[in-house]
Each structure stands twice: as structure tokens, then as C-alpha cells.
Amino acid sequence: MLTAIVMIDAIPARIPEVAETITAIRGVDEVYSVTGDNDLIAIVRVRNHDDLAGVIADGINKVDGVQRTQTHLAFRTYSSTELDRAFDLGLGD
């Protein structure tokens, strides 16, 4: 499974509509409206690189109102939930 974090710049007046449209693209798990240098961040999870190209290049980048994207590929996942589960001995609280 490949995970990509896609930073998205959108036309300000269209941010809610852009987020809704991106959320509907298959392979997009979550879309966040954020502060900072970008307007939205999408979390994309797909099986292979071809699927990644389809979701981002052929999907997100073609949404009306998207001005620019920057994609980061995840190498590893570190999650407090997963760490807690790994160290849980099943003894309860």
C-alpha cells in the first residue's frame, strides 16, 4: 500500500467545493482544510504507482479550483495507536 500526502493550493472562494470533489475521488481517504502555506491536505492510499498517478495527476490536479499540488510519499508509518497496540500485554487497566 502506498500512502501519499498531497498539499493542495486552491482558489480561496472554492475551497469547500474543491475539498468535497477531492474527497469523492477513489483512493483519497481524507481531506483536511488547514492553516499555513496550503489550503488543503489530502491523504491518498493506493496499491501501486499507476494508481497514484491516476488519483493525483488525473484526478486531484484536474479538479476545478485546484491551482497547485505538491505530493509527498510516505516511507513508514508511525502511529501512537499502533505503538500502544504493539506494547499492550492484554492485562487491562
TrEMBL record:
Q: Which InterPro entries match?
A: Dimeric_a/b-barrel (IPR011008), Tscrpt_reg_AsnC/Lrp_C (IPR019887)
Pfam families in the record:
AsnC_trans_reg
What positions does the domain Transcription regulator AsnC/Lrp ligand binding occupy?
6-77
Q: Note the superkingdom of the native organism.
A: Bacteria
Q: Which PANTHER family match?
A: LEUCINE-RESPONSIVE REGULATORY PROTEIN (PTHR30154), TRANSCRIPTIONAL REGULATOR AZLB (PTHR30154:SF34)
* Protein name as annotated: Lrp/AsnC ligand binding domain-containing protein
From what organism does this protein derive? Flavimobilis rhizosphaerae
